[in-house]
UniProtKB/TrEMBL annotation:
It catalyses: L-glutamyl-tRNA(Gln) + L-glutamine + ATP + H2O = L-glutaminyl-tRNA(Gln) + L-glutamate + ADP + phosphate + H(+); L-aspartyl-tRNA(Asn) + L-glutamine + ATP + H2O = L-asparaginyl-tRNA(Asn) + L-glutamate + ADP + phosphate + 2 H(+). GO terms for biological process: glutaminyl-tRNAGln biosynthesis via transamidation; regulation of translational fidelity; translation. Keywords: ATP-binding, Ligase, Nucleotide-binding, Protein biosynthesis, Transferase. The keyword NAD does not apply. One of its GO terms (molecular function) is ATP binding. It comes from Veillonella tobetsuensis. Belongs to the GatC family. It is an enzyme of class 6 (ligase). InterPro entries: Asp/Glu-ADT_sf_sub_c, GatC. It comes from the Bacteria. This is Aspartyl/glutamyl-tRNA(Asn/Gln) amidotransferase subunit C.
Amino acid sequence: MKISQEEIKKIALLSRLEVKEDRMASVEKELSDILTYVAELNELELDDVEVMAHAVPLHNVLREDELKPSLDHNLALSNAPEEEDGYFKVPRVVQE
């Protein structure tokens, strides 16, 4: 499948890419090769091929949620450089 330089310029404009004139011939060949390959893929008979999201099967390895005791509130605050009203006090990062 052939693509023209005018089509390349329009695609470049729409995608906000800069294609320099000295690279236009190589971009034209590369895009034509890609379109030819996609056209070949479209000719494949895929009716009996199962739809998949990944090339290999993936299985999540999950553990059961277990309720466990967490860090004591006072113990956690004992490591804080500053605390206020039972919370960590941190420096302001957003200036008004």
